[in-house]
Amino acid sequence: MLHKLMISFVLFAIGLFLGCAGGASDAPSKDTRSEDVEARDVPSEELAARDLPSDALDADEVTSADADSTDRDSPPPPPPYVPVFQVESQALLDHLVADFWSPDGNWEGDMQGDATAFAPYILYASGKARLEEKATATVDYEVTIAAAVATTGVLSMEAVVGAPALADGFRNTGKTLYRAAFLLGARQGYAMIAANPEEFAVYVGQLATVYGTGAYLSLVAHEISGEQQDLDHALDLIARADATEWDDARGVYRYASGMDWAQATMIMALAKAYVATKDETHLTHATRALAGMDAGAWDAASGGYYLNEGKAGKTLSGNNNMVWAMLDLYEATGDATYLTKATAVLEWVFSKDLYSPVEPMLFHDWTPAGRSDFYCTGCNFETLCNVHRLNALAEADASR
Question: How far is CA 133 from CA 123, 147, 320, in A?
């Protein structure tokens, strides 16, 4: 049973990525002080009688002139940042909450329980009490189904995929139960991946995704715990990926099916590793992997990333992961180019290729034959998380 429980916590890491403010005027200020002095026309003899220097008027006028010059030469403040995709995002959130919420904390319409993983982030971020309550109910639901796995030894996909919600639950409520459960999962996940990574590659098609997701969640664990062991776990998995999965000639991590999954998960892990260590090697590999995706899978005509170099189709989940990776790169470097690239991907996501304003909903796949007729609420929640992160980071960048 313990073996199955440990596998469940590893699979949640893998399943996480398989789910489906006006400017100032340039006009100079009026020099009212000089006008007042000149209007009184005080003679220099009177100034001397008052023990004032005879050049007092000139000094006062120069000071006012300097102030005028400063006002004219100062650049206006930057215009306020205007958030993007707000109308579509609000429509999606309203639809998800109204039509897919269940009072037990479970969300309907997700493919692999991934709504449990992503819904808490955006609901907590809303700042609205009724939505924050739903976020906590979602995390509590995850606790319940994870405990059922521990009791019965029977794996549950919802428990596996939704477990990362525990980290958001802890960060927003401070509940130590959430913290302990998440750290246990991340650490046992590392142990199982380190012991037999091939056992988990069968679920995702490539070892790079196994290493990337495991390392990423170990780095989140390090952010929460501050303990060296979690950073060491992440760096070990990254080192394994770099040693065995990096294709230096092509500048990408090897993949069997999903080029986007392998590159995105490794970029995410490498960006966080760079923040934690300042080791330039991590940043170099992350940027090279992104360049490889751009060269091999970016659709220059319509936008968005293809699943792989075969360019047979694009998915919402794969493009969500690429946006998440670019936002992590921005946080690591402060380079606003990554915000621009993330925006470009989301522009395709909200195009007619995936987005329907009628439901409203983002559908899951696109091929040259057209948009798929199915959707995943978990992937829609992940898109909402990406939009929120993008706008928060871009607003802060614009005000710098």
Answer: 8, 21, 26
Pairwise CA distance, residues 290 & 264, whole Å: 8
Provide the terminal-to-terminal Cα distance of the chain, rounded to the nearest Å: 52
Q: What is the pLDDT of residues 297-353, one digit of tens each?
A: 999 999 999 998 888 899 999 999 999 999 999 999 999 999 999 999 999 999 999
d(CA 244, CA 271): 19
C-beta separation of 240 from 197 below 8 A: yes
Q: What is the pLDDT at residue 257? A: 81
Structure tokens at 206: 């490539």
- Tokens 């309550």, residue? 133
Q: Which pLDDT belongs to residue 19? A: 42
Query: Are the CB atoms for 367 and 312 separated by under 8 Å?
Result: yes
Count of other CB atoms within 10 angstroms of residue 399: 11
Q: How many C-beta atoms lie closer than 10 Å to residue 312's C-beta?
A: 10
DSSP secondary structure letter of residue 29: P
Percent of the chain with pLDDT over 90: 68
| Beta-bridge partners for 252 | 247
Write out the H or E segment, with its range, that includes residue 172.
helix 165-173
Q: How many CB atoms lie within 10 A of CB 191?
A: 13
Please list, residue by residue across 39-55, b when 16 or more beta carbons sit within 10 angstroms of its beta carbon and e when fewer do: eeeeeeeeeeeeeeeee
Cβ(169)–Cβ(178) below 8 Å: yes
Query: What pLDDT shows up at residue 79?
Result: 86
pLDDT for the residue numbered 63: 52
